[in-house]
């Protein structure tokens, strides 16, 4: 085999491995089990693929690149991401992505686009088919994984050492499965992409044997059943759209042979209907008429039964109500940063500058929102009208070119098929057209799931690479462009070697990211158990590998601060002083790198509060740090409440009461704040005000009525 052909095969197999392993891959060794490991795998494959692609150019002494209709939209989108990163309120986060989410940063976008162009330039129809085949195998394994979770058996727990059960998960995985994806909505979005592909596979006219068809229907059955077990409304809606798009277009392009597809259409709809009747859907409106609770769904719950929270009750807020509030905040961010946004992946910071006050009245009021839970609003708020505009341009361009190619598919594909007019040639054309339509339909589902959520590593991979697949499937070979270098340019060969070394450097860099997070995770766990010396050692290893990662610097500052406290308690004044300064330096450096990161200020508050037990003057530093945090998040009642507590500790009782009263104004159902107010009022002799707070607490917490009433009686005596 010629070296060039070998490299081309390597690229094809790397893409195949990418789509097989990324959905499956996770480890318990990192701070984030799922997304972090998947993005590390994406970076690694990107380095290998681009390295092999560059090596082909070196061997052929030509620039191997194939133009496509989507090049201009993608380049414009990439420019928008660069622009927003340059003007970002936190460039570090914009480059690498928000720590724990990772996907969506500039590096990840570059990776996806490089792989798009690499696939179009190096792969052909047989490679698409191979990737689809292995993608389906991966999805089968994941679906079985998820179905077993529903019935109380998780391979994850088996791997973690707790047995073949679901006891290793805090989440109620039996009610909403997530398998190897990490979250039910992400698993649902993944399955909605591949269900149309599995349907197209069942329609393949070259595979009509009874056993094969039965197996194809079994795959669809498994995918759909797992989708139902996610209880994902966005996933279910995405499936409905992709299913409708697939069959409507299929009926249109096969109107002369409509009888041949009526039978599978009816069979599949019957399967789906039966599964909904037996296991239910994510929607109570549907279940009211169809769902029959059975032995096979003992843990079925309905996400629609959640009661919207009021200002007084303690129920669980409906996710749709929470989304509306977050979307309102995202719109406010956009109005403040209309052109380029606040910066790629900075929603976790910019949202809290403009967080609606009504967010304090939902059950998830103190959760961290690092995404807008709407991909379009997320781009609008973080990359502005330029970012969203180019993103929508890419979507619309793909919709246009793909619909055009589907309806003109026979002409385009016939140029790639030997003997296209023969019976086998016609069957091959029909099979490839169905596959292209299925990929397009699955891609369409992402437009829905991204509307109610956000993209993750797996869905982003398909979002950017499915257009590459369909272009390869429909583009005649003779329209491909291999730009040869002009005569006399052989001297460029040494310069082309540079990208190869750069690719391997990126691979090394990526592996170091994983190693650093591994040590960070160990250090974080040790810190939580009070083993600060061991924690510091692990975190120091993480910082040594990634010295400019603010999350690591912030965490090690806490460990160093606690070691300073321990040294002080052991009368080691010199060591305590050195560790104190070291902790402050780490914290200051983290904020210098990531100045808009609210979490880093919260950690600094924790640090200075710890140090204040060594030297009381650090209490003022604690107040300064939390005041700065409030500047970044002015509607957060917890920050204001804690500021009030600090004022109280500093002996400023009147200011403490006014501050805590302000937190109660922001969140009337703030139990801890009202309880603290009652104590402060009692301390200054304002018993009637204390009684008012306690009466309010009775409404909020009826189970504590007796205790609170006894306290009221004491105050009224």
TrEMBL record:
GO cellular component, one term: membrane
Main location: membrane
Regions crossing the membrane: 7-27, 39-59, 71-89, 101-119, 131-148, 186-202, 214-230, 236-253, 265-283, 376-401, 437-465, 492-514
Localisation: Membrane
All copies of domain O-antigen ligase-related, residue ranges: 219-391
InterPro entries for this protein: O-antigen_ligase-rel_domated, TPR-like_helical_dom_sf, TPR_rpt, WaaL-like
Xref: Gene3D superfamilies: Tetratricopeptide repeat domain
Pfam families to which the protein is assigned, alphabetical: TPR_8, Wzy_C
SUPFAM superfamilies in the record: TPR-like
Keywords: Membrane, TPR repeat, Transmembrane, Transmembrane helix
Annotated TPR repeat ranges: 516-549, 637-670, 671-704
Membrane topology listed for this record: Multi-pass membrane protein
Coiled coil: none
Protein name: O-antigen ligase-related domain-containing protein
UniProt organism field: Candidatus Shapirobacteria bacterium CG_4_9_14_0_2_um_filter_40_11
Lineage per the UniProt record: Bacteria, Candidatus Shapironibacteriota
């Amino acid at each position: 085999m010629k070296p060039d052909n070998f490299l081309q095969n390597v690229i094809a197999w790397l893409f195949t491995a990418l789509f097989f392993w990324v959905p499956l891959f996770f480890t318990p060794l990192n701070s984030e089990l799922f997304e972090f490991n998947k993005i590390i795998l994406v970076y690694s494959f990107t380095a290998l693929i681009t390295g092999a692609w560059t090596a082909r150019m070196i061997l052929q002494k030509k620039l191997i690149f194939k133009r496509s209709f989507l090049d201009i939209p993608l380049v414009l989108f990439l420019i928008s991401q660069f622009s927003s990163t340059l003007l970002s309120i936190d460039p570090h986060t914009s480059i690498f992505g928000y720590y724990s989410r990772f996907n969506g940063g500039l590096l990840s976008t570059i990776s996806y686009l490089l792989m798009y162009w690499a696939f179009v330039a190096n792969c052909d129809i047989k490679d698409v088919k191979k990737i689809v085949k292995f993608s389906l195998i991966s999805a089968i394994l994941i679906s079985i994984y998820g179905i077993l979770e529903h019935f109380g058996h998780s391979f994850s727990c088996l791997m973690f050492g707790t047995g073949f059960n679901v006891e290793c998960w805090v989440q109620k995985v039996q009610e909403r499965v997530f398998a190897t994806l990490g979250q039910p909505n992400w698993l649902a979005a993944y399955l909605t992409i591949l269900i149309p592909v599995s349907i197209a596979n069942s329609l393949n006219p070259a595979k009509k044997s009874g056993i094969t068809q039965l197996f194809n229907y079994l795959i669809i059955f498994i995918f759909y059943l797992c989708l139902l077990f996610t209880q994902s409304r966005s996933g279910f809606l995405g499936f409905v759209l992709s299913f409708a798009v697939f069959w409507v277009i299929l009926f249109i392009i096969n109107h002369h042979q409509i009888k041949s597809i009526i039978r599978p259409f009816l069979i599949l709809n019957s399967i789906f209907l039966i599964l909904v009747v037996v296991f239910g859907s994510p929607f109570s409106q549907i279940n009211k008429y169809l769902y029959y609770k059975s032995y096979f769904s003992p843990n079925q719950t309905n996400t629609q039964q959640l009661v919207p929270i009021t200002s007084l009750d303690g129920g669980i807020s409906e996710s749709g109500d929470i989304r509306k509030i977050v979307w309102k905040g995202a719109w406010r961010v956009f109005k403040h940063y209309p052109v380029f946004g606040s910066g790629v992946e900075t929603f976790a910071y910019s949202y809290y500058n403009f967080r609606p006050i009504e967010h304090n009245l939902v059950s998830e009021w103190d959760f961290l929102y690092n995404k807008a839970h709407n991909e379009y609003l997320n781009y609008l708020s973080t990359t502005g009208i330029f970012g969203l505009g180019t993103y929508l341009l890419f979507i619309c361009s793909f919709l246009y070119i793909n619909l055009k190619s589907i309806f003109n598919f026979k002409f385009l594909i016939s140029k790639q098929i030997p003997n296209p007019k023969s019976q086998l040639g016609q069957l091959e054309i029909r099979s490839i057209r169905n596959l292209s339509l299925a990929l397009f339909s699955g891609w369409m589902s992402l437009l829905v799931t991204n509307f109610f959520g956000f993209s993750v590593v797996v869905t982003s991979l398909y979002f950017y690479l499915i257009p590459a697949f369909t272009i390869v499937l429909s583009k005649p070979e003779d329209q491909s462009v291999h730009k040869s270098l002009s005569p006399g340019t052989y001297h460029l060969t040494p310069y082309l070697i540079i990208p190869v070394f750069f690719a391997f450097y990126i691979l090394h860099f990526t592996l170091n990211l994983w190693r650093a997070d591994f040590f960070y995770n160990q250090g974080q766990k040790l810190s939580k158990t009070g083993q600060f010396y061991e924690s510091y050692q692990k975190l120091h290893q993480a910082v040594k590998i990634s010295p400019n990662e603010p999350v690591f610097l912030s965490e090690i500052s806490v460990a160093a601060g606690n070691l300073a406290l321990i040294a002080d308690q052991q009368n080691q004044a010199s060591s305590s002083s050195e560790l104190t300064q070291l902790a402050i330096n780490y914290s200051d450096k983290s904020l210098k790198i990531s100045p808009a990161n609210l979490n880093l200020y919260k950690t600094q508050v924790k640090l200075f509060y710890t140090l204040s037990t060594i030297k009381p003057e650090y209490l003022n530093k604690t107040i300064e740090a939390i005041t700065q945090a409030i500047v970044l998040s002015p509607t957060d009642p917890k920050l204001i409440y804690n500021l009030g507590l600090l004022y109280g500790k500093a002996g400023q009782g009147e200011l403490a009461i006014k501050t805590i009263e302000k937190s109660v104004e922001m969140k009337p159902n703030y139990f801890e704040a009202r309880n603290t107010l009652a104590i402060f009022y009692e301390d200054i002799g304002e018993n009637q005000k204390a009684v008012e707070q306690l009466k309010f607490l009775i409404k909020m917490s009826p189970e504590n009525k007796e205790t609170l009433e006894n306290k009221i009686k004491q105050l009224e005596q």
